[in-house]
Amino acid sequence: MTAGKAPTATFASVIPRTGIGIDVHAYAPRDAPQPLWLGGLFWDGEPGLAGHSDGDPVAHAAADALFSACGIGDLGTHFGTDRPEYAGASGVTLLAEAARIVRAGGFEIGNIAVQFVANRPKFGPRREESQRVLSSAAGAPVSVSATTSDRLGFTGRGEGISAVATALVYPAVPAAPHPAAPQASG
Ligand SMILES: Nc1ccn([C@@H]2O[C@H](COP(=O)(O)O)[C@@H](O)[C@H]2O)c(=O)n1
Ligand SMILES: C[C@@]1(CO)OP(=O)(O)OP(=O)(O)OC[C@H]1O
To answer: Which residues form the domain of 96?
Structure first.
């Protein structure tokens, strides 16, 4: 570059946006048991959670974090309990639909990270399976971790499961061509 001369081209700045989502579901009452859906997986033999949908707090927190990152409301805005079509809906379906809405709004998804709090089920052995299912639904990497709350609070008493998620999205703007890139001919 000639000394003192400013560059002639600039790059489009792509500013990522972060979002957060929290979801909590109580265990279904003993006289109306439900299957457990958690992290996009069915957990055979585990007590299930109550909800209008399948009650998967991991998938719901992930979807909420996506909406939060884009500034387009929350789970209730898009999948309210007043919508009969979402009664019993799988968390994986809701996450896939959230990702579709986000992309239709002009964003691409960087990643989603979720952590849930529960005494059980023991998540580690199925982490990769869960991450595969949720990443496939979102079309972007979803990581999932688990912790107990050391027997404290409602999760510690086994009354429900909570999950918190963060998401990173960025505007799906085509990048400006590099000034040094060869020009297409013809
Ligand atoms: N439902 C759960 C909860 C925890 N884990 C794993 O155990 C580790 C230790 O948890 P603490 O709450 O005792 O710190 C945690 O880091 C997870 O790896 C799990 O698999 N399933
Ligand atoms: C997912 C929806 C809709 O079926 O219902 P729930 O399964 O009750 O889940 P919640 O996270 O409490 O709220 C969001 C609702 O829009």
So the answer is: 17-76+87-171
